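step: validate -> pass
step: tokenize input -> pass
step: predict -> running
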Amino acid sequence: MSTLRNDIQAAYECYQKAVDISPTIAYELIQVLKQENISYVVAPYEPDAQMTFLALRKHVDAVITDELMTQM
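step: predict -> pass
step: emit ->
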């Protein structure tokens, strides 16, 4: 079981390194959302609690973040 946990941790760390939401990507996404008339919210600082609240209460269909703080 320890090997599986190590594999999961290693995969998680690689995923974190691979995901990078740059300001350019965020801007381009916002432009597409505007074109498609899709509502969105941009959280300015550390929005983890707010995003969790909105997702758990089903006020949003998706959450995108560049910083995943979940502990495995």
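step: describe -> Residues 44 and 68 are 16 Å apart (CA to CA).
step: cleanup -> pass
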